Predict the 3D structure of the following.
Amino acid sequence: MRSHPDIAGEGLHMEYTAMSLNPNARLCGKRSLLELPDPAQPKDHACLEALERQLDVPWALYHVRRLFLLSGSGERRPVTRSTERADIGRPRQLARRLITVSERHGIDVEHDPLYGRARAWLRPRREVWPMAGELFATAPARVIDKQDKHFEREWRALLSGSAARLPLA
């Protein structure tokens, strides 16, 4: 990373964006790339400056939903998701908006004051499947809207308590 700080900045940016929408989305296993550069070490400053340049782009507020469902035999199915851009702006502006609205509704907000990410869990993930997770998060505006096939139908079925009637794969 120290030999190629601009490339390192791109990797750190990708992981920061991914982890903004999913805290478990580390790019290199259990350890986060973001843990490697040490701000106290002058030799790491170039990597961190490259990350800051990468993050100096338009940001978006995303609505992210995930379904953790079981197959007919009780096995865990692959997680399905819906990611939708709700707004675009600067990191601090979007974070302030998310914090203000969340506080009005009694929802806690995780905020990274260093780089700007804010995350509010409307429906935190649990440990037991099946379950649904839902959050609003700010991140660099490089994530496209996407939704897995049948997501809305399965979301409604799980939240209405009729998950037993889902067409399980």
